[in-house]
Amino acid sequence: MNTGGVSRTQQVVYAILGVSALTLLSALGWGIATGALSAGGAAEGRAAEGGASGSDGGPTALLGTSRGSFDNGGDRGNQGILVLSDGGTRLQSVHVPGGTVAAEVTLPGQARAMVPTPGGVSVWVTFEDRGEIEVYSTTDLEHEATIDPPPPENGNGEAADGGSDSEAGSGEAADGGGRDGGGGGPGQRRGPPEHLTFSETGETLFVTWAESSTISVYRHEMRELTFRDEIDAEGTEGPVFRNRRATRLFRRDEDGGLAVFFAQNGQRMGRVEGTHFAEDPTLTFSADYTEAWGSTSAGNVVGMDEATSTAVVASNEVAPGHAPVLPEGGGTAVYVGERERGIVALDTSGIEISEATGGDAAATAGDATTDAGNEIASLPQVQQLELSDTAGISARRVASLAHTDDGALVVVTTRGELVTVDPSTFEVVSVAEVGSGDDDAGAAGGAGGSAGDGADDGAAGGVPERVVAWSVKEDGNFACF
Amino acid sequence: MIIAGGIALGLLLGYSLQRGGYCMNTAFRSFYMEKDRSLVRAWILILVINIIGVRLFTDLGVLQPDVAPFFWPAAIVGGFVFGAGMVMAGGCASGTYYRCGRGMLGSVAALVGFVIGTAVIDGGALVGIQDGLRGATIEVGNGDGAQATVFALLGLESALLRRLVIAALAIPAAIWAFRAPKQRFLIGWTWQKTGTAVGVLALAAWLLSAMQGRDFGLSFTQPTVALTRFIVGGDTSGLSVASFIVAAVPIGAFLAAKVAGEAVLRFPDPKRFVRQFGGGVTMGAGASIAGGCNIGHSITGVSTLGITAITSTAFIILGCWAMTWVIYQTESKRMKTERRTV
């Protein structure tokens, strides 16, 4: 075959290799050009072709009970917020930034949590006293399916195919028995599903249960759930947060820290120390998933470094309990709903969380205000918006924060006002009413980024109790749109 | 574009592996059996390129490598089993793939065995072994769930200190590699050319994967499992850019062999054929237990300075030496017996 010189075969092979090299270089160049390969924002634009996992360009919620996600590539008409009110029995779909209520539905029970699917087309709702998960479209709240998460047949994790009792026709409902009480570890009976956490592509769903610390892991494909595994998360409670690839899970433990689990085998890897999250905490990751931000039960801003699972607690005081905290897309600031002062933007660019913990904390960020090693001084405030001083806004407190696709900041107040803010100037762009808007009421604390005790804003009524954002992704290989 | 990039990278990788005759079974064995350590030097060069490159791109925010927790029993047992298996199979995971492309049917048997071995352990009938051995982990660092890397082990949180550690590892390694005597056996590329080509392609695999949201570089075990599940059951959930790379490696190797006139179907003797198949099964099982093979652990994982990858690589080498010793002793006895008979 080797005839000396450059044979025809060699020419063909060299041509193939040349084309391959050009293709590889083109692929990498394309990655740089589209931002899929970019410094400080590797997650941006990663929603890609062929088996790619769609990642979000904007701040990405770990969990549906957090603020959901907005994608740079989404259609502006295909984004909005979902508002739960009337004691968790009324669900509204509200377009942003306009604030138009597009649809409204009365739920069959008292909702516990709601989570948009990664593709943004549907929202899954769990209930206080129902074992089924109801699925609605995010745009018009049309009921799409009833899903009964299949229980393991025994404690050894044997799979049981479960599915959706879909109004669209596909899927069969699984036996929903066996989750009507009791608590305990894997494979044991437990209450209804509480919190849901999708992986980035939706291929995996993590489910927590009432009266149980167990985290169930399901494979998910177009509303069909197949039981895969259970994680014995004894001593933990509340929603589950995940890193970008859902390789590590974070959940509040009984001492207020975050237990860290290796998702593949459920092994408890460690604990995020030095902070005390409130019950049902919120924790929202930055766009590149390197940091997550939330608030402590004492009302301080807390930041966590994903790679090292270390946390810093800033001394900025916000609303105790569930102050909404939203990382800015560029990763240099966080927006915080404060107790009396509307929203503020805090500069985080000077903090390397992994380096600011321990003894170096005070030196890094100034004088520490407490004796805890993870506590640092106040993050510098760079912007502030006094809600009550703004025309047309009656509430002082923030129920939820979100980004729109075009970068605007959306604020939902505890009185049901949807305020769109230009983040560059921190000026109000528009104000609209969501919820009933006629109740002088506060929000109950909740996993949806809701505000805290509501004592200064009145009693519950038609006001938002949970708020999540959704946006339909144009690209991405999602297990369920 | 990513799929096309993956296939292109696989073609170039297969071509480079074949032209350089790069097999880590041969490289690790040469530590113990031979004086020529050219392939070890190629491996070191690959590591130097990737350790520096991964750190650089991580610091730039382009990469966020995933590092496995330190499931030490799995790393030790799986690594050792894989190392022993690759001696029986006559090639490491990547070596087996590229040798298939050049027509070595013993390697085809090893690859079939590798597929079976991975399938049996990774979600298969013997998944309990994997679960059991991965159940015990050691927290590296301060017990705060940090990724199990050398940095966490040393308690290094400063970017500057991490770079100093990289420099302290890479510079002596590079000096050792380049102070090499002249390569004694040279059929294709020199070890410098091979190491550079594979090293650059391995780093490109990190970047291509990052574009897909996959926080890992070159690997062969998981993509093999994913390809198998796709081919057998139509399950596309595990497919990634790495799957397309792996699928294209034999084709690239075939092209290289075709040019060099080495693309010939070769049948091993039946006994060796069976041994290679068994080696493939053993190798696949070991890789699935350890969570990676000579590529996933010994190149990609070590590039992140992951403790699990380093441990697994050490035991891959030990397994390789142990099985080499066993085969050497067995063959020596057989030859002595044959001489007496004659």
Provide a descriptive summary of the structure in words.
The complex is a heterodimer of chains A (481) and B (342). Chain A has 481 residues and is mainly beta. Chain A has 3 helices and 31 strands. Chain A has a 6-stranded mixed β-sheet. A 5-stranded antiparallel β-sheet of chain A has the order 5-6-7-8-9, with no helix packed on it. The termini of chain A are far apart. Chain B is mainly alpha-helical. Chain B is built from 15 helices and no strands. Chain B has helices spanning 2-20, 24-33, 38-59, 72-89, 93-101, 105-121, 127-135, 150-154, 159-178, 191-211, 221-233, 241-260, 270-290, 296-303, 307-341. Chains A and B meet through helix 1 and strand 17 of A and helix 1, helix 7, helix 10 and helix 12 of B.
Name the descriptors.
heterodimer; A: 481 residues; mainly beta; six-stranded mixed beta sheet; five-stranded antiparallel beta sheet; 3 helices; 31 strands; 7% helix; globular; B: 342 residues; mainly alpha; 15 helices
Give a topology summary.
The complex is a heterodimer of chains A (about 475) and B (about 350).
Chain A: H1 8-34, E1 60-61, E2 79-85, E3 90-95, E4 101-106, E5 111-116, E6 122-127, E7 133-137, E8 143-147, E9 164-166, E10 193-198, E11 204-209, E12 215-221, E13 224-231, E14 236-242, E15 248-253, E16 258-262, E17 267-272, E18 283-285, E19 291-295, E20 300-305, E21 310-317, E22 325-327, E23 333-337, E24 343-347, H2 353-356, H3 361-365, E25 375-376, E26 381-385, E27 398-403, E28 409-413, E29 417-422, E30 427-433, E31 466-471
Parallel strand pairs in A: 21-25
Antiparallel strand pairs in A: 1-18, 2-3, 2-31, 3-4, 5-6, 6-7, 7-8, 8-9, 10-11, 11-12, 12-13, 14-15, 15-16, 16-17, 18-19, 19-20, 20-21, 22-23, 23-24, 24-26, 27-28, 28-29, 29-30
Chain B: H1 2-20, H2 24-33, H3 38-59, H4 72-89, H5 93-101, H6 105-121, H7 127-135, H8 150-154, H9 159-178, H10 191-211, H11 221-233, H12 241-260, H13 270-290, H14 296-303, H15 307-341
Helix pairs in contact in B: 1-5, 1-10, 1-12, 2-3, 2-15, 3-9, 3-10, 3-14, 4-7, 4-13, 4-15, 5-6, 5-12, 6-13, 11-12, 14-15
